[in-house]
Specification:
mainly alpha, Hypothetical protein af1432, 2 domains, 20 helices, 0% strand, globular, binds magnesium ion
Length: 403
């Protein structure tokens, strides 16, 4: 039987996360005969209920709007792919990077950021709702799969990577995992990489999705240098290229440019800084995984463009408003009568109300609502409010081509 070490990548840099020096799991478990600890984390995430739900959760476009748009699941897979490429190049722990990427969005509500903002405002009197903290809550507490503990009992390093940002107030309640948000420390390099892989993935796939939906045009996007240069290059090199392949080649060129910049610049930074180990990385004065200034500017320009033109596009905002209505109506209904939730959630809400008052009940309701997929939330709305949500009607009118 191969040893744990043989299951790791052949060459890990000194600054990579190593499970033998890791901070371990909250509940001690015997090691597996042939799977590494971070591999087990990844496998637990893939087998979780929350992971399967990601397929029906909105990234930008509501799932009903078409079959080809990214969902939280395909987004997470693209993030993991980018992070694994970077991890290999930099000698980081690829399995760890993959695990944290696959789990980073597990706490997302239905309907993307609109759903998260709506739930956060519903929860304002009781401590608010942060999707990133919720991702940690899913893996730490909400998954019910093991006899001896709640949650997935993941390693500290995977949990550290999942918690990308956190308010100081919540960080104080989290103990060791929240400390870096209070002390301005950094997570390990795999987590830093996963964080930027997330940004690279959504900035670039949202160009593809936005063009597909007809909410953006190549002409409008030409004001973004990163897009324009690749678009022009591909068109000049392949004058007869089809429109679908032109978009794909452009996005492919953009991703390649920013990922290459990221890994080469980070490799140089690591070479100079020579952190002795992951703890030296955590204590270092700055993040060691980063773009060059020029690429950071180019990438940021794309992000600003998408913020202004795609995420605030009239059609996206229409969906956003509908989504907020659905989430608010569901939350209010479950607060009013816990028995409108399935029995297991009603029992939990009543128990938490006894121990934690109204805040306890609200947290149980928030967990239930946050766990919903788009379609589950729409069905619940139709059942409890008594009419089909407009969001569904509207989406039916907007079918994309299966080209
Ligand atoms: Mg993400």
């Amino acid at each position: 039987m191969p040893s744990d070490q043989a299951q790791q990548q052949p060459v890990l840099a000194p600054w990579a996360a190593r499970e033998n020096d890791g901070r371990g799991r909250a509940h001690a478990e015997a090691s597996h005969p042939y799977r590494s600890e971070y591999q087990r984390d990844r496998d637990r995430i893939i087998h979780s209920t929350a992971f399967r739900r990601l397929v029906y959760k909105t990234q930008v476009f509501v799932n009903h709007e078409g079959d080809h748009y990214r969902t939280r699941l395909t987004h997470s897979l693209e993030v993991a792919q980018i992070a694994r490429t970077g991890a290999q190049y930099l000698g980081l722990n690829e399995q760890l990077a993959e695990a944290m990427c696959l789990a980073h969005d597990l706490g997302h509500t239905p309907f993307g950021h609109a759903g998260q903002d709506a739930l956060n405002s519903c929860m304002t009197p009781w401590g608010g709702f942060e999707h990133n903290l919720q991702s940690l809550r899913v893996v730490d507490e909400l998954e019910e799969r093991y006899a001896d503990f709640n949650g997935l009992n993941l390693t500290y390093e995977t949990r550290e990577g999942i918690l990308k940002h956190c308010s100081k107030r919540n960080a104080r309640d989290l103990g060791e995992i929240g400390r870096r948000f209070l002390e301005r420390g950094h997570p390990g390099l795999e987590a830093q990489l996963a964080n930027l892989a997330d940004e690279i993935a959504y900035n670039n796939h949202d160009v593809d999705d936005g063009l597909r939906a007809g909410l953006l045009t190549a002409d409008e996007l030409s004001e973004v240098d990163l897009f324009n240069e690749h678009w022009t290059r591909v068109r000049d090199q392949h004058p007869k290229i089809g429109s679908r392949a032109l978009i794909h080649e452009t996005v492919r060129g953009m991703i390649n440019e920013v990922v290459t910049d990221l890994v080469e610049h980070s490799a140089q930074a690591l070479d100079q800084a020579q952190p002795a180990d992951i703890d030296a990385v955590r204590r270092h004065s700055r993040r060691l995984i980063s773009f060059t200034r020029n690429t950071a500017t180019r990438h940021r320009a794309l992000k600003s463009f998408l913020n202004a033109r795609l995420y605030r596009h009239e059609r996206v905002l229409e969906m956003t408003h509908e989504a907020i209505r659905v989430v608010e109506a569901l939350f209010a209904r479950f607060m009013e009568d816990v028995h409108t939730m399935p029995a297991s959630h009603a029992v939990k809400a009543k128990a938490w109300r006894e121990t934690g008052g109204e805040a306890g009940q609200a947290r149980a309701v928030a967990d239930y609502v946050a766990g919903m997929t788009d379609r589950y939330a729409l069905a619940a709305y139709a059942r409890l409010v008594g009419r089909p949500p407009e969001i569904e009607m509207r989406a039916k009118l907007m079918k994309e081509d299966h080209d």
